[in-house]
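Work Package 3 (structural annotation) set out to generate three-dimensional models for the target panel prioritized at the project kickoff. During this period the team completed the workflow that converts sequence records into discrete structure tokens, so that structures can be stored uniformly alongside our sequence database. As a representative example, we reproduce one entry of 219 residues exactly as it appears in the project archive.
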Amino acid sequence: MLRLTLLCLSLVVCTAAQAASVVWSATINGIDLASGADAPTGSLVRLGTFDITDAEIASNASVGNIPFLNSHFTEYGSALIGDGARPAGHFSTITNNNGPTAIALAGAQIYVWAFSSGTVAGSSEHGIFYLPKATDADWQFPVQVPFPDTTQIGLDDLTDLATSTTLKANARVVVGSFGPGTSDSTGKPNFTLVPVPEPTSAALLVAVAGLVGFIRRRS
């Protein structure tokens, strides 16, 4: 009985120490800046999920409303370009999470949010990419309870397996583009970031949109 009790306690401790894991990367198709250069080593890449639609994400990105996007994004983990001893534009890492976020996000859609520098605030460019979990079940966060699970994803999943030169039909490039730049290390098309509009430009776009709406209502 004592041995059985000790064994049960050991299993509980080991399970508690384990974490749900996401193995994620950009190894063949990397990340480009808008200039066409590979994203520099040290640039931030975030792993998480949004609680708003793709249309809302794109609309707010178009006016530089990064704070709004950030408020609707739950981060699971992060990485830096260069992680895993990868060259500029690429990374590979494992994110382990055994906290409340791992439990809350179990089964949620995975998004990859990439930036042009090491911080959100310091970045002048960004991009948001994912593959719908309905297309590839790996693109959902793994469960933490009752037993931690693992999933493996990569930006390469969004491209055709044979050549890595065209997007899959269901691939989602919510903010940014695929190409035209290519990776200096692999020669394959990269996922390209787009500039974040300046606050003055964003305000102008919002004002114009409001004016158009007002005119339509009056007509």
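The first helix runs from residue 2 to 17.
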